[in-house]
């Protein structure tokens, strides 16, 4: 990453994610009154005074327990600390000094990373000074009383943090292609992210629901920068209780909306499910470009025709994503993983592609020549006067006609097929607005009023 990293470290439930939200200025990290909510390293952009940096949230650090995810969380914390310019060690001022705090402090003193000690949950300024005084014994310098919820003391604490950071780079950040990795639980989304990055960026476990938050990672290939967003596995709504999973799924849906391209990951062993179809519908509805990634292909017994037949079955069930390319990969072995970003590049380019009005009308004329617009029993026939592209992401076209009601769904689908056959647009949905004569007259009247004004 081009920006310096500030790592947030501490025991479970001391308010690390709340402090991340306070420093980053947005409610992105999941906050819930339950230990162990954060597991992976999650990065957020932040700045203070004349310094810009990436703040990385980490899971609660516990050294004397090796159950469930705790060893993997320790590994993620160590990786975060290895790339950090400075660490913020968060402790709980209301609970006071604990043995866990002393163990972490001893561990941090053995590292070469500067550490700022933040005593959280000091809601009262005067009382906070007394709460913070107990933590001088940790030997990490002055303990700074802060309140992640109200913001008390965070400015003074950040003044100490940025003293260890270089000045902001005046160069503009390069443009990014945002790529959301979406799918059901346990289809291999985190393994795919790790395969892209060549490191264990996200915790991978056979336990369903391991990833809870949306994890942003930056990667550069040649001159293109990508923001890869790993997300929580999305189960059926009726199976989800209010809590960490509920918030994680909401983050996943937000990740779709803030991405340009979505990787819909499907388990090759389980095949297509109803939930996969619903996710595909959500992607199309949000107008995002898409690449369908069939993962775990190494676990499928196959012959020469298996891939062709398998894709045919999948496409029959994902008919509303017929425009999306398919790729069969194995995140574990790395098979064809490097080709995914090539398909992402193509989908992103088509998603923001614009064609001239003359080309649009040539396609419409050819389509009408092959198949005339439908007629009613009374002999009234639909007419398309002209069309134009009005926007991108996704490419959107307005067709001006005599009466939109004369054009049924079958003919509208035919027009879209003709656009794709003539112009491509592989990997992106298309939008069409059919406007009648009344709308044209209103547009002309508005244009005349604007001219007179």
UniProtKB/TrEMBL annotation:
The record's section on PROSITE patterns has:
G_ENGA
Q: Which domain of life is it from?
A: Bacteria
- List where this protein forms a coiled coil: none
Q: Where does GTP 1 bind?
A: 10-17, 57-61, 120-123
Q: Which SUPFAM superfamilies match?
A: P-loop containing nucleoside triphosphate hydrolases
Q: Which UniProt keywords apply?
A: GTP-binding, Nucleotide-binding, Repeat, Ribosome biogenesis
| UniProt-annotated binding residues for GTP 2 | 183-190, 230-234, 295-298
UniProt GO molecular function: GTP binding; ribosome binding
Q: Which Pfam families does the UniProt record give?
A: KH_dom-like, MMR_HSR1
Question: What InterPro entries does the annotation carry?
Answer: AAA+_ATPase, G_ENGA, GTP-bd, GTPase_Der, KH_dom-like, KH_dom-like_a/b, P-loop_NTPase, Small_GTP-bd
Which GO BP annotation is one of this protein's? Answer: ribosome biogenesis
Q: Where is the EngA-type G domain?
A: 4-169, 177-352
Could you describe the subunit structure of this protein? Associates with the 50S ribosomal subunit.
Family named by the database record: Belongs to the TRAFAC class TrmE-Era-EngA-EngB-Septin-like GTPase superfamily. EngA (Der) GTPase family.
Q: What does this protein do?
A: GTPase that plays an essential role in the late steps of ribosome biogenesis.
Protein name, entry field: GTPase Der
Please name the taxonomic classification of the source.
Bacteria, Bacillati, Cyanobacteriota, Cyanophyceae, Prochlorotrichales
Q: Which gene encodes it?
A: der
